[in-house]
Design brief:
By secondary structure, the chain is an alpha+beta fold. The chain is built from 11 helices and 12 strands.
């Protein structure tokens, strides 16, 4: 990304097991339709991100968070010429469920109800998590992550919708997905897949899109990148990971990987091997968020939440009531 003003770091910190971390500035980057196994909590520092989610474009500017539940299709791109800069954490569904059970009254599987939340204080917490991970402060990173997730669930949380009753189309889509997972490296054509499942190509296409929010070929690319990530995490070289998941070669993997994960597979693997990279400093200067936490953030009308919870949900200090720490600590 040299020369374009774009930069990104995607890594993990050993004291936050299973939680992906990201700092990035993108200008021309366009994320194709994809999903994540974990929650996405993206805190916007500068610029504007636009992401298609739930059938509409969502706008997230400074002081807001882009929030995406697991396995929810979405995209991503710049909403202004200068792009956008942000930090993100990706907690696992298990961790979010654990936090929700301990600190909220949400029943069922917890998730976020709105994809954009105007909350500069929570934005600051996310960047403090990243800073603590950079500094190797496991106690602070774990504490701040839990406080941030608690606050977001209290302001913008609720039970995720129950899975719909399996119709005939949904069952066909599930069977098609199972075939694609099993034959990821050598998938059948749409016509052959439909014939093997006893349906027509367009009927299968509609059923799959209804069930998973994207057509089979888009879902397959997303699934290949997910599997490639697992292989890279296990130490498999990118060239071997590419062939193993069905890409023709490493450049083919590079192109799709960067369009979904945000960094090339080689850089991704290097950072995952070196979770304490002393040479990679924070993209957000020290103290920035404490100075801005009470500033009014930019939010376009399209992104405003008419049902935004009142400020009385957390404690008067802005810290979730019942937290193990306070802002002064």
């Amino acid at each position: 990304m040299a020369g374009s003003g774009e930069r990104a770091r995607h890594w993990q910190y050993a004291e936050l097991p299973g939680v992906d971390l990201l700092r990035a500035r993108y200008v021309e980057k366009k994320f194709v339709r994809h999903t994540h196994e974990n929650f996405v909590i993206a805190a916007i520092a500068d610029g504007v991100e636009v992401f298609h989610h739930g059938g509409a474009d969502q706008y997230a500017g400074p002081g807001t968070l882009a929030l995406v539940n697991p396995d929810t299709p979405h995209t991503g791109r710049a909403g202004v010429p200068e792009g956008w800069r942000y930090g993100a954490v990706y907690p696992t569904p298990g961790l979010v469920a654990e936090i929700a059970a301990e600190t909220t009254g949400i029943r069922g599987t917890p998730g976020f109800t709105s994809p954009v939340l105007d909350d500069p204080y929570a934005v600051g917490l996310v960047h403090q998590v990243l800073r603590a991970a950079d500094e190797g402060n496991g106690l602070a990173a774990d504490t701040l992550l839990r406080v941030a997730v608690t606050r977001l669930l209290r302001l913008n949380g609720g039970p995720l919708p129950q899975r719909p009753v399996h119709t005939a189309g949904a069952k066909v889509a599930a069977r098609a997905r199972a075939v694609l997972e099993e034959r990821m490296a050598e998938p059948p054509t749409l016509e052959r897949l439909a014939a093997d499942l006893g349906t027509g190509p367009f009927a299968l296409l509609r059923a799959f899109r209804d069930a998973y929010g994207m057509p089979p070929h888009t879902w397959l690319t997303d699934a290949r990148v997910r599997r490639a990530r697992a292989l890279l995490d296990a130490g498999t070289p990118p060239s071997r990971a590419a062939v193993a998941v069905g890409f023709t070669d490493q450049p083919h993997l590079n192109r799709h990987f960067a369009r979904i994960v945000g960094v090339p597979p080689g850089a991704y693997q290097r950072e995952r091997k070196n979770v304490q990279d002393d040479g990679a400093g924070p993209l957000v200067p020290s103290g920035t968020w404490h100075k801005r936490q009470h500033a009014r953030p930019w939010t376009p009308k399209a992104a405003q939440n008419p049902t935004r919870p009142s400020s009385g949900t957390p404690s008067e200090s802005g810290w979730p009531s019942g937290s193990p720490v306070s802002p002064s600590e």
